[in-house]
Amino acid sequence: MEFSEKLNNIINDISFFDEIEISEIPCVDLYMDQVTTFFDDKLNHYKRNDKDKILTKTMINNYSKARILPPAKKKKYSKEHIILLILIYNLKQVLSINDIKTIMEPLLEKVSDESNSVSLENLYSIFLDIKEKEFKNFKESFQFQQNQIKYKLDELSEESKEMVQVILLIVTLINNACIQKRMAEKLIDNFFNKK
Predict the structure, then answer these.
(1) pLDDT tens digits, one per residue of 134-145
(2) CA distance 127 to 77
(3) I need a surface site. Which of 30, 94, 149, 165 has the fewest CB within 10 A?
(4) pLDDT tens by residue, 52-70
(5) Can you list the pairs that 23-30 forms with residues at least 24 positions away whose Cβ atoms lie under 8 Å?
């Protein structure tokens, strides 16, 4: 397979938007084993290798102990629990448990307040809409970065060009991730932490 074709396949694979839609979340409450199976089935494409776990019983128990997830009711998890677990799963890819707790505490207060108009389902729907657009934007942005790197490496020999290009793409992606992580942390520090 040619280098550019392989890169395009990777871009298409990573840009594929396949998230858990609200309609896919069971309306009936689930036991712990059902929750972990549900996540493994629905988010299997996020695993880097087959041994990875999307969500374990220990993780769920730790989230409850850390008070970023309300405790199960009669050992069952509701649709709201599932939505919160999806949000936590996304947040834990980058943020610490302490930062997640900082974000989740006011969210849980707003959601549990009957007089408030914040709906967890509404918040999640907005998140999915934005995430889908971000996936599409990522593909364009990545191709732009790839073209810039190709242009700057024009004078290198073909055999070393591919490896250097991959290294530069990785470094660029990590830099972008670091910038976005720092921005998220700054937002947490400025709008949530009351120091």
Answers:
(1) 988 998 899 899
(2) 21
(3) 94
(4) 999 999 999 999 999 999 9
(5) 25/79, 25/82, 25/83, 26/79, 26/82, 27/79, 29/73, 29/76, 29/77, 29/78, 30/76, 30/77, 30/82
